[in-house]
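Severity: low
Component: inverse-folding endpoint
Summary: output formatting inconsistent between runs
Steps to reproduce: submit the following structure tokens with default settings.
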């Protein structure tokens, strides 16, 4: 019985190894599926890229590619073992389309991701503040183009803050538009400027205005045809504290972009 048991054990071991070799050989010949749910987040001179981890157990890493259009020649810019990559070479005002490929331990690379994932980096900043123009007129306005605090009546002022007997307002001049898009968790929640809903100029006035409220985000359409957004984080009797982002491309409503899945194929001329 002992000899028979040993023979059966050896036979079972051979079958097991043969089965493993068959699986490995099969895996070695099959490329992974293309990564899915690619999304991007434009920040100041940079783009954050995220996607879902592949379900295959033999994924080694992910290769990241970029191009100036959705179709065409994508260029390799880096690799990571994570489902996150930061492109720190992106330049404000330029358009970047991203794609990701999964690579397994055998060196097989998947097709590029099919999601439309593009971003236009733009300047932003946090915890900026301007003051009540009735008390501090020289520090009450903010200029997106200058990225700085200015006088409330400066030709560069895109908006200014007002405390009117305890009621707080955000004001813009007649040639600028503004609207309150409501409560948001952070400045990135608003992805693009809306096409309607702007505050109307009242007869006989040269200023448009909205109540200033903490945790609300406001979209501003400047007189130079640029879009911006601010999110208020704090208000006192003297000042308002806010985060902001400004789109450098004239007429571009994109303030932050997430992916939109489609089925169109990319044309890859040269990856690396």
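Observed output (run 2 of 3):
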């Amino acid at each position: 019985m002992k000899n028979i048991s040993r023979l059966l054990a050896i036979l079972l071991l051979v079958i097991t190894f043969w089965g493993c070799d068959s699986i490995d050989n099969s895996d070695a010949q099959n490329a992974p599926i293309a990564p899915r749910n690619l999304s991007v987040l434009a920040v100041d001179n940079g783009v954050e890229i995220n996607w879902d981890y592949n379900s295959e157990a033999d994924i080694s890493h992910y290769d990241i590619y970029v191009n100036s259009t959705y179709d065409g020649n994508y260029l390799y810019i880096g690799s990571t073992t994570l489902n996150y990559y930061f492109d720190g070479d992106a330049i404000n005002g330029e358009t970047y389309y991203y794609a990701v490929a999964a690579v397994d331990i055998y060196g097989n690379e998947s097709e590029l991701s099919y999601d439309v994932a593009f971003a236009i980096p733009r300047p932003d900043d946090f915890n900026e503040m301007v003051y009540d123009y009735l008390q501090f007129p020289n520090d009450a306005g903010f200029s997106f183009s200058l990225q700085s605090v200015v006088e409330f009546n400066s030709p560069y002022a895109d908006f200014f803050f007002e405390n009117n007997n305890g009621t707080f307002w955000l004001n813009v001049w007649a040639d600028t538009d503004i609207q309150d898009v409501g409560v948001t968790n952070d400045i990135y929640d608003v992805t693009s400027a809306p096409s309607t809903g702007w505050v109307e100029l009242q007869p006989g006035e040269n200023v448009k205005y909205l109540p200033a409220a903490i945790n609300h985000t406001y979209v501003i359409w400047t007189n130079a045809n640029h879009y911006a957004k601010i999110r208020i984080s704090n208000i006192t009797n003297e000042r308002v504290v806010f985060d902001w982002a400004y789109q450098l491309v004239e007429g571009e409503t994109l303030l932050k972009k997430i992916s939109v899945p489609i089925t169109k194929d990319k044309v890859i001329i040269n990856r690396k």
